[in-house]
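Input/output pair, single chain:
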Amino acid sequence: MLLRFDQAALLLVVSALKGSCSDPLFQPTILSPNSTDVWDVGDVRTVSWSNHDLDIPPSQHGEILLGYNEPSTNTSTAYYQQPLAQGFLISDQVVNVVVPAVPSGDFYFIVLNGDANAQTGLFAIVNPASPAGPSSANVTLPATISISSAPPATVSHWSTSGNSSSQTATSDQTASATASTPSSSSAPNGVQPRVAGDGWRWFAAVAIMVVATGFNV
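Output:
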């Protein structure tokens, strides 16, 4: 009887911890791109961010998403189903992407997703095959985009305090060449909250030990 009660209690604790950790655990500051940047379709561009004063686990992976602010409706949408890059370490603070073929415009943004969620302001992408005005309400945004693999970025590994070390390496990133369908979000700026991974598991493990010890004393 005692064992069954303990199991039920632990399940409630784990369930509550999952629900309480739906918000990002970390929010790095994206340095590039910024509002003054202009990306050309087909180019390899670098997304960089700062983890200063953030205690991000060295094994935490992330993904880079492209999003846009719909000019005619002012709603934000991102291509959540197909990231521009994925599988890299958030501790790398840098990753390369290939700019996909989207219409010219100054209404695009980048999302850094993982346990760490961060978003840029709006910046411009130029497509010579789609020379529409950068803020035109008549621009038709594609329902799908094609993603190409980018060469690895050279990174300088940083400590959790933001001080650089002498080690450098190439980031381990992957990108698919398949198409994706954009997903709209009701969250601010089109960013959908992610369920935290390693963070809630750690808290759950600690809670399980505490509860189990308390019930068996």
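The CA atoms of residues 2 and 151 lie 57 Å apart. The radius of gyration is 20 Å.
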